[in-house]
Amino acid sequence: MVQKILIAAIDKDGGIGKDGYMPWHYPADLKLFMNLTMGHTIVMGRKTFDGMFDREKAPLKGRQNIVVTSQAEEYRSKFAPEHSPSHLNFTTDINCGDIELEADAKIFYCGGANLYQQVIQRLDLDIIYLSRLDESYDCDTFFPQNPQSSDVEFEPYIPPYLTQSFSDKMSGSKPFTFQIYTPKPLIIY
């Protein structure tokens, strides 16, 4: 069974990016992202891909990279000579129904704002991994906000069928809180 997982890092105001990139560097969070996604499928929107590709950060190594874009054919023909479809592919479908996936694949949806909004509204997610940073970074791109939250403090929109199963303050030079949301509470020993 394919697992659908949303993974995001947000600043204290719900920001996820500025000028097409992440305006912070949290080594512990990057390591966590790498460990969780390595060997699996990551799905990102076109703007996220373009921002990463422009800085030679995409496609991410060791993962099947899928970019959701209305310009899938154009992007596919542009990148096909350099990258095999098993490493980098393009689709118009957030379900990736037109791309061959392993039967037990883990699909990590990793941004940006438009993709997060579509995924939260249209897919039944199995897990949300959320890194909550303690600082603000003057972002211009944001994670979807819970419409019931106050204007005083940002609260991310989490689908009502998911509950917070785990939360841990990650220490280091730049501490952050790592949260896991699942349909049923996790049992952690």
TrEMBL record:
<dbReference type="GO" id="GO:0046452">
    <property type="term" value="P:dihydrofolate metabolic process"/>
</dbReference>
<keyword id="KW-0808">Transferase</keyword>
<dbReference type="InterPro" id="IPR024072">
    <property type="entry name" value="DHFR-like_dom_sf"/>
</dbReference>
<dbReference type="InterPro" id="IPR001796">
    <property type="entry name" value="DHFR_dom"/>
</dbReference>
<keyword id="KW-0418">Kinase</keyword>
<keyword id="KW-0554">One-carbon metabolism</keyword>
<dbReference type="GO" id="GO:0004146">
    <property type="term" value="F:dihydrofolate reductase activity"/>
</dbReference>
<dbReference type="GO" id="GO:0050661">
    <property type="term" value="F:NADP binding"/>
</dbReference>
<comment type="similarity">
    <text>Belongs to the dihydrofolate reductase family.</text>
</comment>
<dbReference type="InterPro" id="IPR012259">
    <property type="entry name" value="DHFR"/>
</dbReference>
<dbReference type="GO" id="GO:0006730">
    <property type="term" value="P:one-carbon metabolic process"/>
</dbReference>
<dbReference type="GO" id="GO:0016301">
    <property type="term" value="F:kinase activity"/>
</dbReference>
<dbReference type="GO" id="GO:0005829">
    <property type="term" value="C:cytosol"/>
</dbReference>
<dbReference type="GO" id="GO:0046655">
    <property type="term" value="P:folic acid metabolic process"/>
</dbReference>
<feature type="domain" description="DHFR">
    <location>
        <begin position="3"/>
        <end position="183"/>
    </location>
</feature>
<dbReference type="GO" id="GO:0046654">
    <property type="term" value="P:tetrahydrofolate biosynthetic process"/>
</dbReference>
<keyword id="KW-0521">NADP</keyword>
<dbReference type="InterPro" id="IPR017925">
    <property type="entry name" value="DHFR_CS"/>
</dbReference>
<comment type="pathway">
    <text>Cofactor biosynthesis; tetrahydrofolate biosynthesis; 5,6,7,8-tetrahydrofolate from 7,8-dihydrofolate: step 1/1.</text>
</comment>
<dbReference type="Pfam" id="PF00186">
    <property type="entry name" value="DHFR_1"/>
</dbReference>
<keyword id="KW-0560">Oxidoreductase</keyword>
<protein>
    <recommendedName>
        <fullName>dihydrofolate reductase</fullName>
        <ecNumber>1.5.1.3</ecNumber>
    </recommendedName>
</protein>
